[in-house]
Amino acid sequence: MASDLWWVTIVLVVREFGIMALKSLLSRREVIAPSSGGKLKAVLQMVALAVLTVDWVGLLGSELGPWMYWLGMVVLYVATAIAVVTAVDYVVKAVRIVRTGQSSKA
């Protein structure tokens, strides 16, 4: 099950490095502040990591333990979806800045 999650790691790592590079390239023109979606993504990633690293079957037994695993997986998938949406949002903001020289605030 967990071995099927390689693509989640790739999506999240590419997103992080891509946004970091994008913000770095645009830093001379304008600073793009972290969005609330990006902050929510970070919180959900931390929650998913915390939930998925605990042996819930050992702690809660075979009836409740698997439910905690699936809860962690749902949180991870939601965080990944938010990561993709916020990456697109950052790219749209960057294109607007490059084309017009203005941010969405102006």
Quick overview of this protein structure:
The protein has helices spanning 6-26, 36-52, 56-100. Helix 2 (36-52) packs antiparallel against helix 3 (56-100).
What is the secondary structure topology, with strand pairs?
Layout: H1 6-26, H2 36-52, H3 56-100
Helix pairs in contact: 1-3, 2-3
Description:
With 106 residues, this protein is mainly α. It contains 3 helices and no strands. Helix 1 (6-26) runs parallel beside helix 3.
Unreliable spans = none
State the end-to-end CA separation: 47 Å
Classify the helix fraction into a percent range.
over 70%
Order of helices and strands: HHH
Provide the β-strand percentage band.
under 5%
Largest sheet: none
Keywords:
single chain; mainly alpha; 3 helices; 0% strand
